[in-house]
Amino acid sequence: MQGNHIMQDISPDRALEVLKTPEKRIPSLLQLCDGMRAEKSSDEVSLCSIVNAKSGNCTEDCAFCAQSSVSSTSCKSYPMMDSYSILSARRRAGELGAGNFSIVTSGGSPTREELENICGMISRGREMKPFWCASLGLLSLQQLQLLRSTGLSRYHHNLETERTYFPEICTTHTWQDRINTISNAKLAGLEVCSGGIIGLGESLRQRVYMAFQLRDLKVDSIALNFLILLKGTRINSRQEFFSPADMLKTVIMFGMVCPEAELRICAGRKLLGEYQKEIFRAGVTGIMTGDLLTTAGSRIQNDLELLETAGRIPAS
């Protein structure tokens, strides 16, 4: 068996072995990933960009988030940005080559007025690239159908972590609440982007189970983030050593478990260090470029240089 056949047959125990592979054997794992990529035969990497359209004052208590009201992190707080600013940010993202552009808002879910304003913006630019994406928290099927009807193409909603570990990370809503939103987005006819944050203190087996949970959900795109420690959040120190090699093996494992989904690396990509250019051999087909929600991200020129070094090109 080769390529996708190997990946589809991988078991949780085999996936766990990947995470425990000695660093010196990473090249052999990457060779296996090369076989999978040969079947897909694409050198293109998609770029996405976001705008933090509404920041801070969130009533949720997510342990990693600077925007949570329980966090003492210094974080800019502001209400929903005006339409001109958001549309301008989208235009700039498109000029820099982003294929998807996401409106991101803090809080459990937007108000009716906020949702109507967002729908108005989406409808005005629905025929132009970059494609509209949104990350607006926990939404109902009716709300997601409204977004779909106005031109939204993809909804982003992370699992954040594995089901059994979720109560350690958030207590103001449940893991099932997140599953419900993802299911509603799929029912509404939207593409779904979902993933989580690696390095929250989850066990290796829980990390593996999250990959299988995303595979079972049949999400279109997986967004992997590596924890960026922020002073003032409940998780402000690593509970275990997490090396760049560990990060790369995690990327490889997700690519093996979920070969049919787009695999995108978002926050924490620079923590990979010298392994950063190897993520594309590991199965990554997308990256986030530009600033993140509350921390600086990467410059588009640096990302284009990274793609060139890795022998990849931006998706057209």
Characterize this entry briefly.
This protein has 316 residues and is α/β, with parallel strands linked by helices.
Give the SSE map:
Blueprint: H1 3-8, H2 12-19, H3 26-40, E1 44-54, H4 83-95, E2 100-105, H5 112-124, E3 131-135, H6 141-150, E4 154-156, H7 166-169, H8 175-187, E5 191-198, H9 204-217, E6 221-226, H10 244-257, E7 262-265, E8 286-288, H11 300-309, E9 313-314
Structural summary, described in words:
This protein is an alpha/beta fold and 316 residues long. It has helices spanning 3-8, 12-19, 26-40, 83-95, 112-124, 141-150, 166-169, 175-187, 204-217, 244-257, 300-309, and strands spanning 44-54, 100-105, 131-135, 154-156, 191-198, 221-226, 262-265, 286-288, 313-314. Helices cover 38% and strands 15% of the residues. It has an 8-stranded parallel β-barrel with strand order 1-2-3-4-5-6-7-8, surrounded by 4 helices. Helix 5 runs parallel beside helix 6. The longest helix is centred in the first third of the chain and has 15 residues, at 26-40. The two termini are 32 Å apart. The model is unreliable at 1-7 (pLDDT under 50).
Task: Figure out the total of helices.
Answer: 11
Tell me the overall shape. Answer: globular
**Domain count:** 1
Task: Give the CATH superfamily.
Answer: Aldolase class I
Poorly predicted residue ranges = 1-7
Q: Main sheet, how many strands, which sense, barrel? A: 8 strands, parallel, barrel
For the record, the CATH class is Alpha Beta
Strand order across the biggest sheet?
Answer: 1-2-3-4-5-6-7-8
Cα separation of the termini? 32 Å
Order of helices and strands: HHHEHEHEHEHHEHEHEEHE
* Quaternary structure annotation: single chain
Q: Return the CATH topology.
A: TIM Barrel
Radius of gyration: 19 Å
β-strand percent reads: 15-25%
Number of strands: 9
Overall pLDDT score: 88
Which bin fits the share of residues in helices?
25-40%
CATH architecture: Alpha-Beta Barrel
| Helix-and-strand structural type | alpha/beta
